[in-house]
Here is the input.
Amino acid sequence: MTERLSSEQLAARRDAAGALGSALRDLVDAAVRTEVPLAELQDVTASVQQLAARLRVDMRGLQEPAPLDDPGTGDRWFSPVYGPGNPLAPRLAATDTPDGRATGRVTLGKPYEGPPGVVHGGVVATLFDHMLARAVRAAGRGGMTAELTVTYRRPVRLGVPLLLTAKMNDADGRRTTARARIVAEDDPGTTLAEAEGLFVSLRP
Amino acid sequence: MTERLSSEQLAARRDAAGALGSALRDLVDAAVRTEVPLAELQDVTASVQQLAARLRVDMRGLQEPAPLDDPGTGDRWFSPVYGPGNPLAPRLAATDTPDGRATGRVTLGKPYEGPPGVVHGGVVATLFDHMLARAVRAAGRGGMTAELTVTYRRPVRLGVPLLLTAKMNDADGRRTTARARIVAEDDPGTTLAEAEGLFVSLRP
Here is the structure.
Protein backbone atom coordinates (compact mmCIF):
# COMPACT_ATOMS: atom_id res chain seq x y z
CA MET A 1 0.00 0.00 0.00
CA THR A 2 2.16 2.85 -1.22
CA GLU A 3 -0.50 5.45 -2.08
CA ARG A 4 -1.60 7.92 0.60
CA LEU A 5 -4.89 7.15 2.34
CA SER A 6 -7.70 9.72 2.48
CA SER A 7 -8.92 10.51 6.00
CA GLU A 8 -12.02 8.37 5.37
CA GLN A 9 -9.93 5.45 4.13
CA LEU A 10 -7.65 5.86 7.13
CA ALA A 11 -10.59 5.79 9.55
CA ALA A 12 -12.08 2.72 7.86
CA ARG A 13 -8.77 0.92 7.91
CA ARG A 14 -8.16 1.76 11.58
CA ASP A 15 -11.61 0.37 12.39
CA ALA A 16 -10.90 -2.81 10.45
CA ALA A 17 -7.47 -3.29 12.03
CA GLY A 18 -9.01 -2.71 15.47
CA ALA A 19 -11.79 -5.22 14.75
CA LEU A 20 -9.25 -7.84 13.65
CA GLY A 21 -7.15 -7.11 16.77
CA SER A 22 -10.22 -7.50 18.94
CA ALA A 23 -11.28 -10.76 17.28
CA LEU A 24 -7.74 -12.13 17.63
CA ARG A 25 -7.62 -11.08 21.30
CA ASP A 26 -10.74 -13.22 21.83
CA LEU A 27 -9.23 -16.09 19.84
CA VAL A 28 -6.00 -15.97 21.87
CA ASP A 29 -8.04 -16.01 25.10
CA ALA A 30 -10.03 -19.01 23.85
CA ALA A 31 -6.84 -20.79 22.71
CA VAL A 32 -5.20 -20.70 26.15
CA ARG A 33 -8.40 -21.86 27.87
CA THR A 34 -10.00 -24.31 25.47
CA GLU A 35 -10.63 -27.95 26.32
CA VAL A 36 -12.29 -28.95 23.03
CA PRO A 37 -11.39 -32.40 21.62
CA LEU A 38 -7.99 -32.93 19.99
CA ALA A 39 -9.36 -33.24 16.43
CA GLU A 40 -11.20 -29.94 16.78
CA LEU A 41 -8.01 -28.28 18.05
CA GLN A 42 -6.12 -29.57 15.00
CA ASP A 43 -8.87 -28.49 12.63
CA VAL A 44 -8.92 -24.96 14.05
CA THR A 45 -5.10 -24.85 13.76
CA ALA A 46 -5.29 -25.64 10.03
CA SER A 47 -7.82 -22.81 9.57
CA VAL A 48 -5.58 -20.39 11.48
CA GLN A 49 -2.70 -21.26 9.14
CA GLN A 50 -4.89 -20.51 6.12
CA LEU A 51 -5.93 -17.13 7.52
CA ALA A 52 -2.26 -16.20 8.20
CA ALA A 53 -1.40 -17.04 4.59
CA ARG A 54 -4.18 -14.70 3.38
CA LEU A 55 -2.86 -11.79 5.46
CA ARG A 56 0.73 -12.46 4.41
CA VAL A 57 -0.08 -11.75 0.75
CA ASP A 58 0.93 -8.10 1.35
CA MET A 59 2.95 -7.27 4.48
CA ARG A 60 5.07 -4.41 5.80
CA GLY A 61 8.71 -5.19 6.47
CA LEU A 62 10.20 -5.33 9.95
CA GLN A 63 11.43 -1.72 9.80
CA GLU A 64 8.43 -0.16 8.03
CA PRO A 65 6.17 2.11 10.11
CA ALA A 66 2.42 1.52 10.10
CA PRO A 67 0.48 3.96 7.85
CA LEU A 68 -2.29 3.87 10.50
CA ASP A 69 -0.11 5.48 13.20
CA ASP A 70 -0.78 9.10 14.10
CA PRO A 71 2.48 11.08 14.10
CA GLY A 72 0.63 14.05 15.61
CA THR A 73 -0.51 12.36 18.83
CA GLY A 74 2.18 9.67 18.88
CA ASP A 75 -0.54 7.00 19.07
CA ARG A 76 0.68 3.66 17.74
CA TRP A 77 -2.03 1.47 16.26
CA PHE A 78 -0.04 -1.74 16.79
CA SER A 79 1.60 -1.03 20.18
CA PRO A 80 2.00 -4.27 22.17
CA VAL A 81 0.68 -2.45 25.28
CA TYR A 82 -2.37 -0.53 24.07
CA GLY A 83 -2.59 -0.87 20.27
CA PRO A 84 -6.13 -1.75 19.14
CA GLY A 85 -4.64 -3.62 16.18
CA ASN A 86 -2.15 -5.69 18.19
CA PRO A 87 -3.70 -8.88 19.64
CA LEU A 88 -0.89 -9.03 22.22
CA ALA A 89 -2.05 -5.77 23.79
CA PRO A 90 -4.70 -6.02 26.50
CA ARG A 91 -7.69 -3.68 26.27
CA LEU A 92 -5.91 -0.83 28.07
CA ALA A 93 -7.82 2.44 28.05
CA ALA A 94 -5.39 5.23 28.90
CA THR A 95 -5.69 9.01 29.07
CA ASP A 96 -3.28 11.77 30.03
CA THR A 97 -3.18 15.48 30.86
CA PRO A 98 -0.56 18.16 30.06
CA ASP A 99 0.49 18.41 33.72
CA GLY A 100 2.23 15.03 33.30
CA ARG A 101 -0.39 12.67 34.65
CA ALA A 102 -1.71 9.51 33.04
CA THR A 103 -4.51 7.14 34.01
CA GLY A 104 -5.16 3.66 32.65
CA ARG A 105 -7.86 1.07 33.15
CA VAL A 106 -7.50 -2.60 32.23
CA THR A 107 -8.76 -6.05 33.17
CA LEU A 108 -6.41 -8.91 32.37
CA GLY A 109 -7.46 -12.42 31.37
CA LYS A 110 -5.89 -15.86 31.22
CA PRO A 111 -3.30 -15.10 28.48
CA TYR A 112 -1.55 -12.72 30.93
CA GLU A 113 -1.28 -15.25 33.80
CA GLY A 114 1.95 -15.77 35.73
CA PRO A 115 1.40 -17.53 39.07
CA PRO A 116 -2.02 -19.25 39.14
CA GLY A 117 -4.83 -16.68 39.01
CA VAL A 118 -2.32 -13.81 39.11
CA VAL A 119 -1.04 -11.40 36.43
CA HIS A 120 2.54 -12.12 35.28
CA GLY A 121 5.08 -9.72 36.80
CA GLY A 122 6.42 -8.89 33.35
CA VAL A 123 2.96 -7.81 32.20
CA VAL A 124 2.71 -5.48 35.20
CA ALA A 125 6.16 -4.07 34.31
CA THR A 126 5.04 -3.55 30.70
CA LEU A 127 1.92 -1.64 31.74
CA PHE A 128 4.06 0.52 34.04
CA ASP A 129 6.65 1.21 31.33
CA HIS A 130 3.91 2.50 29.07
CA MET A 131 2.07 4.55 31.71
CA LEU A 132 5.28 6.20 32.94
CA ALA A 133 6.34 7.09 29.39
CA ARG A 134 2.86 8.40 28.68
CA ALA A 135 2.90 10.71 31.72
CA VAL A 136 6.33 12.05 30.69
CA ARG A 137 5.27 12.57 27.07
CA ALA A 138 2.00 14.26 28.13
CA ALA A 139 4.11 16.89 29.91
CA GLY A 140 5.94 17.58 26.66
CA ARG A 141 9.04 15.69 27.72
CA GLY A 142 10.44 12.78 25.77
CA GLY A 143 13.04 10.10 25.74
CA MET A 144 13.52 6.38 25.91
CA THR A 145 13.25 4.38 29.13
CA ALA A 146 16.73 4.32 30.70
CA GLU A 147 15.75 2.62 33.95
CA LEU A 148 12.59 0.98 35.24
CA THR A 149 12.12 -0.28 38.80
CA VAL A 150 9.00 -2.19 39.77
CA THR A 151 8.14 -3.08 43.36
CA TYR A 152 5.57 -5.86 43.68
CA ARG A 153 3.65 -5.61 46.97
CA ARG A 154 0.60 -7.84 46.52
CA PRO A 155 -0.68 -10.20 43.83
CA VAL A 156 -2.40 -8.43 40.90
CA ARG A 157 -5.37 -10.66 40.13
CA LEU A 158 -6.73 -11.78 36.78
CA GLY A 159 -10.28 -10.74 35.96
CA VAL A 160 -10.28 -7.72 38.28
CA PRO A 161 -10.69 -4.14 36.95
CA LEU A 162 -7.36 -2.43 37.57
CA LEU A 163 -6.48 1.26 37.79
CA LEU A 164 -3.02 2.58 36.91
CA THR A 165 -1.95 6.13 37.70
CA ALA A 166 1.34 7.72 36.68
CA LYS A 167 2.81 11.13 37.37
CA MET A 168 5.87 12.93 36.11
CA ASN A 169 8.27 13.59 38.96
CA ASP A 170 11.56 15.46 38.31
CA ALA A 171 12.57 17.06 35.02
CA ASP A 172 16.21 18.03 34.72
CA GLY A 173 17.83 18.69 31.34
CA ARG A 174 17.53 15.55 29.27
CA ARG A 175 16.41 13.44 32.25
CA THR A 176 12.85 12.98 33.47
CA THR A 177 11.59 10.70 36.23
CA ALA A 178 8.06 9.48 36.84
CA ARG A 179 6.24 7.30 39.35
CA ALA A 180 3.24 5.03 38.96
CA ARG A 181 1.09 2.66 40.95
CA ILE A 182 -1.52 0.02 40.29
CA VAL A 183 -4.57 -0.74 42.41
CA ALA A 184 -7.77 -2.74 42.07
CA GLU A 185 -10.55 -0.31 41.13
CA ASP A 186 -12.71 -1.52 44.02
CA ASP A 187 -9.87 -1.10 46.57
CA PRO A 188 -8.05 2.10 45.58
CA GLY A 189 -6.30 2.46 48.95
CA THR A 190 -4.21 -0.71 48.57
CA THR A 191 -1.18 -0.39 46.32
CA LEU A 192 -0.57 -3.71 44.55
CA ALA A 193 2.62 -2.63 42.80
CA GLU A 194 4.48 0.60 42.13
CA ALA A 195 7.14 1.75 39.73
CA GLU A 196 9.68 4.43 39.06
CA GLY A 197 11.06 5.22 35.64
CA LEU A 198 13.92 7.31 34.32
CA PHE A 199 13.61 8.63 30.77
CA VAL A 200 16.47 10.21 28.86
CA SER A 201 15.95 12.18 25.65
CA LEU A 202 18.52 12.77 22.93
CA ARG A 203 18.06 16.53 23.18
CA PRO A 204 16.94 18.74 26.10
CA MET B 1 -12.25 -32.34 30.43
CA THR B 2 -12.49 -33.74 33.94
CA GLU B 3 -11.03 -37.22 33.33
CA ARG B 4 -7.27 -37.77 33.80
CA LEU B 5 -5.21 -37.90 30.62
CA SER B 6 -2.94 -40.86 29.86
CA SER B 7 0.69 -39.90 29.16
CA GLU B 8 0.10 -40.46 25.43
CA GLN B 9 -3.01 -38.32 25.46
CA LEU B 10 -1.10 -35.67 27.38
CA ALA B 11 1.75 -35.66 24.84
CA ALA B 12 -0.68 -35.47 21.91
CA ARG B 13 -2.59 -32.64 23.52
CA ARG B 14 0.59 -30.71 24.33
CA ASP B 15 1.65 -31.07 20.70
CA ALA B 16 -1.73 -29.86 19.46
CA ALA B 17 -1.78 -26.90 21.87
CA GLY B 18 1.77 -26.01 20.81
CA ALA B 19 0.82 -26.23 17.12
CA LEU B 20 -2.18 -23.94 17.67
CA GLY B 21 0.03 -21.54 19.65
CA SER B 22 2.56 -21.53 16.83
CA ALA B 23 -0.08 -20.97 14.14
CA LEU B 24 -1.61 -18.12 16.14
CA ARG B 25 1.83 -16.57 16.69
CA ASP B 26 2.19 -16.45 12.89
CA LEU B 27 -1.33 -15.06 12.51
CA VAL B 28 -0.65 -12.33 15.09
CA ASP B 29 2.57 -11.41 13.26
CA ALA B 30 0.70 -11.24 9.96
CA ALA B 31 -2.14 -9.20 11.53
CA VAL B 32 0.16 -6.41 12.72
CA ARG B 33 1.98 -6.24 9.36
CA THR B 34 -0.66 -6.91 6.77
CA GLU B 35 -1.60 -4.42 4.06
CA VAL B 36 -4.23 -6.55 2.29
CA PRO B 37 -7.39 -4.76 1.06
CA LEU B 38 -10.03 -3.70 3.56
CA ALA B 39 -12.62 -6.27 2.43
CA GLU B 40 -10.11 -9.08 2.90
CA LEU B 41 -9.26 -7.79 6.38
CA GLN B 42 -12.96 -7.82 7.28
CA ASP B 43 -13.47 -11.29 5.83
CA VAL B 44 -10.53 -12.71 7.81
CA THR B 45 -11.93 -11.03 10.95
CA ALA B 46 -15.26 -12.84 10.52
CA SER B 47 -13.41 -16.16 10.18
CA VAL B 48 -11.37 -15.45 13.32
CA GLN B 49 -14.60 -14.83 15.23
CA GLN B 50 -15.98 -18.18 14.05
CA LEU B 51 -12.83 -20.02 15.17
CA ALA B 52 -12.98 -18.38 18.61
CA ALA B 53 -16.59 -19.55 18.99
CA ARG B 54 -15.53 -23.12 18.20
CA LEU B 55 -12.81 -23.09 20.89
CA ARG B 56 -15.12 -21.47 23.43
CA VAL B 57 -17.46 -24.50 23.38
CA ASP B 58 -15.47 -25.94 26.32
CA MET B 59 -13.17 -23.62 28.27
CA ARG B 60 -11.35 -23.59 31.61
CA GLY B 61 -12.36 -20.88 34.07
CA LEU B 62 -10.09 -17.99 35.00
CA GLN B 63 -8.79 -19.74 38.13
CA GLU B 64 -8.50 -23.29 36.73
CA PRO B 65 -4.97 -24.63 36.15
CA ALA B 66 -4.08 -26.13 32.76
CA PRO B 67 -4.05 -29.96 32.75
CA LEU B 68 -1.08 -29.74 30.35
CA ASP B 69 1.20 -28.06 32.93
CA ASP B 70 3.96 -30.16 34.48
CA PRO B 71 3.89 -29.77 38.28
CA GLY B 72 7.20 -31.67 38.46
CA THR B 73 9.30 -29.29 36.39
CA GLY B 74 7.13 -26.22 36.95
CA ASP B 75 6.84 -25.79 33.18
CA ARG B 76 3.72 -23.85 32.24
CA TRP B 77 2.28 -24.68 28.84
CA PHE B 78 0.46 -21.35 28.54
CA SER B 79 3.03 -18.98 30.10
CA PRO B 80 2.89 -15.55 28.41
CA VAL B 81 6.72 -15.53 28.27
CA TYR B 82 7.68 -18.99 27.00
CA GLY B 83 4.52 -21.13 26.83
CA PRO B 84 4.30 -23.01 23.51
CA GLY B 85 0.50 -22.84 23.75
CA ASN B 86 0.29 -19.08 24.41
CA PRO B 87 0.35 -16.98 21.23
CA LEU B 88 1.48 -13.94 23.28
CA ALA B 89 4.75 -15.68 24.18
CA PRO B 90 7.64 -15.22 21.76
CA ARG B 91 9.55 -18.35 20.74
CA LEU B 92 11.87 -18.20 23.77
CA ALA B 93 14.12 -21.26 24.17
CA ALA B 94 15.42 -21.30 27.74
CA THR B 95 17.55 -23.74 29.72
CA ASP B 96 18.94 -23.70 33.24
CA THR B 97 21.43 -25.51 35.47
CA PRO B 98 21.28 -26.38 39.20
CA ASP B 99 24.03 -23.83 40.01
CA GLY B 100 21.45 -21.08 39.45
CA ARG B 101 22.17 -20.10 35.87
CA ALA B 102 19.73 -19.72 33.02
CA THR B 103 20.21 -19.05 29.32
CA GLY B 104 17.59 -17.97 26.80
CA ARG B 105 17.53 -17.38 23.07
CA VAL B 106 14.86 -15.43 21.25
CA THR B 107 14.29 -13.32 18.14
CA LEU B 108 11.47 -10.80 18.39
CA GLY B 109 9.23 -9.70 15.54
CA LYS B 110 6.90 -6.82 14.77
CA PRO B 111 4.25 -7.61 17.43
CA TYR B 112 6.86 -6.79 20.12
CA GLU B 113 7.82 -3.38 18.72
CA GLY B 114 8.11 -0.30 20.93
CA PRO B 115 10.08 2.52 19.28
CA PRO B 116 10.35 1.95 15.49
CA GLY B 117 12.42 -1.17 14.76
CA VAL B 118 13.15 -1.68 18.46
CA VAL B 119 11.78 -4.15 21.04
CA HIS B 120 9.37 -2.57 23.56
CA GLY B 121 11.00 -1.93 26.96
CA GLY B 122 8.20 -3.82 28.70
CA VAL B 123 8.90 -6.90 26.60
CA VAL B 124 12.57 -6.74 27.63
CA ALA B 125 11.47 -6.44 31.28
CA THR B 126 9.17 -9.44 30.87
CA LEU B 127 11.96 -11.61 29.43
CA PHE B 128 14.22 -10.56 32.32
CA ASP B 129 11.55 -11.29 34.94
CA HIS B 130 11.24 -14.82 33.61
CA MET B 131 14.98 -15.48 33.20
CA LEU B 132 15.78 -14.19 36.70
CA ALA B 133 13.02 -16.31 38.27
CA ARG B 134 14.20 -19.30 36.26
CA ALA B 135 17.79 -18.97 37.53
CA VAL B 136 16.55 -18.70 41.11
CA ARG B 137 14.24 -21.70 40.75
CA ALA B 138 16.96 -23.77 39.07
CA ALA B 139 19.04 -23.33 42.23
CA GLY B 140 16.20 -24.78 44.28
CA ARG B 141 15.12 -21.39 45.60
CA GLY B 142 11.66 -20.00 45.10
CA GLY B 143 9.45 -17.03 45.60
CA MET B 144 7.58 -14.33 43.79
CA THR B 145 9.26 -11.29 42.23
CA ALA B 146 9.40 -8.59 44.92
CA GLU B 147 11.48 -6.10 42.97
CA LEU B 148 12.69 -5.85 39.39
CA THR B 149 15.08 -3.20 38.10
CA VAL B 150 15.90 -2.98 34.41
CA THR B 151 18.62 -0.72 33.02
CA TYR B 152 18.30 -0.06 29.29
CA ARG B 153 21.68 0.77 27.73
CA ARG B 154 21.16 0.39 23.98
CA PRO B 155 18.21 -0.35 21.68
CA VAL B 156 17.31 -4.06 21.48
CA ARG B 157 16.51 -4.58 17.81
CA LEU B 158 13.67 -6.53 16.23
CA GLY B 159 14.67 -9.47 14.02
CA VAL B 160 18.06 -10.00 15.69
CA PRO B 161 18.90 -13.25 17.53
CA LEU B 162 19.20 -12.31 21.21
CA LEU B 163 20.94 -14.07 24.08
CA LEU B 164 19.80 -13.70 27.68
CA THR B 165 21.87 -14.93 30.60
CA ALA B 166 20.80 -14.91 34.24
CA LYS B 167 22.61 -15.92 37.41
CA MET B 168 21.51 -16.28 41.00
CA ASN B 169 23.37 -13.82 43.17
CA ASP B 170 22.75 -13.74 46.97
CA ALA B 171 20.58 -16.18 48.88
CA ASP B 172 19.66 -15.16 52.41
CA GLY B 173 16.77 -16.76 54.26
CA ARG B 174 13.60 -16.15 52.26
CA ARG B 175 15.31 -13.61 49.98
CA THR B 176 17.20 -14.37 46.78
CA THR B 177 18.67 -11.94 44.28
CA ALA B 178 19.68 -12.58 40.68
CA ARG B 179 21.19 -10.63 37.81
CA ALA B 180 20.69 -10.91 34.07
CA ARG B 181 21.80 -9.30 30.83
CA ILE B 182 20.75 -9.33 27.21
CA VAL B 183 23.07 -9.12 24.20
CA ALA B 184 22.79 -9.66 20.45
CA GLU B 185 24.13 -13.15 19.71
CA ASP B 186 26.54 -11.74 17.11
CA ASP B 187 27.91 -9.08 19.51
CA PRO B 188 28.12 -10.79 22.92
CA GLY B 189 30.47 -8.17 24.36
CA THR B 190 27.93 -5.33 24.19
CA THR B 191 25.29 -5.34 26.94
CA LEU B 192 22.02 -3.97 25.57
CA ALA B 193 20.15 -4.10 28.86
CA GLU B 194 20.63 -5.61 32.29
CA ALA B 195 18.43 -6.43 35.23
CA GLU B 196 18.43 -7.25 38.91
CA GLY B 197 15.63 -9.09 40.65
CA LEU B 198 14.70 -9.75 44.26
CA PHE B 199 12.61 -12.83 44.96
CA VAL B 200 10.95 -13.52 48.30
CA SER B 201 9.50 -16.92 49.18
CA LEU B 202 6.77 -17.63 51.72
CA ARG B 203 9.00 -20.10 53.58
CA PRO B 204 12.82 -20.31 53.84
Summary: The two ends of chain A are 36 Å apart (CA to CA). DSSP finds three helices and six strands in chain A.
